[in-house]
Write a structure and sequence with these properties.
By secondary structure, the protein is α/β, with parallel strands linked by helices. The chain is built from 7 helices and 7 strands. The N terminus and C terminus are likely disordered.
């Protein structure tokens, strides 16, 4: 029953932040974001193209996940998986539920990514490590912060690491958002939409103007 309730909370948060991330807020900033999307943007090639055509396991760990299931890791894994599935060609993203099942059965210690990859029959494992996650700056301002490390393990080549990104401090939005203009759940949904987009953009073709449009939306 506890796992079922945990998964229900995960799905609610995932649905909430995807909705917030996709909707354009009204007003001048929203109109500016819409205008940007009417202009053909400049496509940026991903830093690593090796996930194309592969069976990929997305695994997320955080400071809190060592103490049991946490909503952050599940939500990020789901969302990054969705973005990769939409942006990669001929790739198969392994369902997070299958990965969770393997972890529960095998008592994974959050370090043996190659072992996990073999266990779920993955070609590649994308390991996402999140540290120092926070949503507030003082008592009156929302500003998301996290340190993110990305590592790709090639299971077909005995766990070789063809790509890694050293810890990146991801803060958004740049100047924060006053707490009187939103609530924590809505802000976290928006921040996670930006965080997962940033992560996925390392592996899929994306638009250079997208981040500017999102900043304009958040300024409203």
């Amino acid at each position: 029953m506890a796992n079922r309730q945990f998964n229900r909370r995960n799905y609610c948060l995932l649905a909430a932040f995807l909705a917030v991330g996709l909707l354009t807020l009204p007003g001048c900033a929203g109109a500016l974001a819409q205008l940007i999307y009417t202009v053909k943007g400049h496509q940026i090639q991903p830093a690593f193209k090796g996930l194309d055509g592969k069976r990929v396991a997305v695994v997320v760990v955080s400071d809190a996940s060592a103490y049991g299931p946490d909503t952050l890791t599940y939500t990020v894994a789901q969302a990054v998986g969705i973005r990769l599935a939409n942006g990669l060609e001929d790739s198969q993203i392994i369902a997070p539920a299958k990965i969770e099942e393997w972890i529960d059965t095998n008592g994974w210690n959050e370090t043996e990514y190659v072992e996990l990859g073999k266990g779920v029959d993955a070609d590649m494992v994308l390991a996402i490590e999140i540290a120092s996650y926070s949503l507030t700056e003082g008592s009156t301002l929302f500003k998301g912060r996290s340190d993110v490390t990305l590592t790709v393990y090639d299971i077909e080549k005995d766990g070789q690491v063809p790509f890694s990104a050293t810890p990146k401090h991801f803060a958004f939005p740049k100047h924060g958002r006053p707490a009187i203009q939103t609530n924590e759940r809505e802000f976290e949904a928006f921040y996670l939409s930006q965080l997962t987009t940033m992560i996925a953009n390392h592996f899929v073709v994306h638009d250079k103007l997208e981040s500017f449009a999102n900043d304009a939306t958040m300024l409203h």
